[in-house]
Amino acid sequence: MATTQQPSTKQDILHHLLKQGQATAQELAEHLKLSPQAIRRHLKDLEAEGLILHEVVHVSMGRPNHVYKLSRQGRDRFPDRYEEFALSLLDTLTETVGREQVGVLLQKQWERKAAEYRDRVGSGSLQERVANLVELRRAEGYMAEWHSVAATEAQSVSTQSDQAERYVVTEYNCAISHIAESFPSVCGHELEMFAAALPGCTVERTHWIVNGEHRCGYLIQTKAAVGN
Questions:
Q1: Under 8 Å CB-to-CB from 147, ≥6 apart: which residues?
Q2: C-alpha count within 13 angstroms, C-beta hemisphere, residue 161
Q3: Which end of the chain is more exposed for a tag (fewer CB within 10 A), N or C?
Q4: May I ask the CATH architecture of the domain 2-75?
Q5: Backbone phi, then psi, for 139, in 5-degree steps?
Q6: Please, which residues have CB within 8 angstroms of residue 182's CB and are 6 or more apart in sequence?
Q7: DSSP labels, the chain
Q8: Which residues, including other chains, have CB under 8 Å from residue 184's CB and lie 6 or more apart?
Q9: What is the pLDDT of residues 168-204, one digit of tens each?
Q10: 160: Cβ–Cβ under 8 A, 6 or more apart, which residues?
Q11: pLDDT-above-90 percentage for the chain
């Protein structure tokens, strides 16, 4: 029984850190309903394996807290869709035809992907289309989710103040993170792709893994809302 529980608990810890960005042992214990002592044993093992790291956060009173987060190696445990091969191929193309031409090729690829997404998300309500888009991203190796946003919450990530239907899509891992680091233009193409896949909408980036954040976030709203 113990041999099957340990890997499962460790995986649960990795998933929680991926989704939340960071957590203390106490927070993990409360979330997974285990004792802090048991959680610390798992954290010690995961840190020894190089999958997580910690930093000491000093508080006003009491002992300093140890805050845990995924290491680069820990993030690499999640699906990356043959990213190493793709990056090597792009590097070879850059050496052969030049970075500008590679940019043109990437643009064509994202346009093709946008057309595929648009066909597959359907023509239902905006909520239905956003939900379908998230399912497509999950199938491609992204840990993605979506939620609707109240007007007051939307204002914290957008300059718009009007009432409108808005949704936030969050992706806690990037299936092309290594490519994005070497070819950051792909992230701009991704925004264009989402907007093209959801006609009548604008897409605004709210969080970005490439900037050191633990997730990528996108605010999706109707163009009518932006124009008011």
A1: 167, 168, 170
A2: 0
A3: N
A4: Orthogonal Bundle (1.10)
A5: -65, -20
A6: 87, 90, 91
A7: -HHHHHHHHHHHHHHHHHHHS-EEHHHHHHHHT--HHHHHHHHHHHHHTTSEEEEEE--SSSSPEEEEEE-HHHHTTS--SSHHHHHHHHHHHHHHH-HHHHHHHHHHHHHHHHHHHHHHH-SS-HHHHHHHHHHHHHHTT--EEEEE--HHHHHTT-S--S---EEEEEESS-TTHHHHHH-THHHHHHHHHHHHHSTTEEEEEEE-GGGT-S-EEEEEEEHHHHH-
A8: 210
A9: 999 988 777 777 777 877 888 888 999 999 999 999 9
A10: 154, 221, 225, 226
A11: 45
**Please, where in the chain does CATH 3.30.1380 lie?**
83-227
Torsional class of 224: left (φ above 0), alpha (ψ -120 to 50), beta (otherwise) = alpha
CATH 1.10.10.10 range(s) for the chain read 2-75
CB atoms within 10 A of CB 26: 13
**Whether residue 148 has pLDDT greater than 70:** yes
Torsion, Cα 18 20 24 30, to 10 degrees, reads -110
Kindly report the CATH number that applies to the domain delimited by 83-227. Answer: 3.30.1380
- Residue 151 Cα to chain centre, angstroms: 23
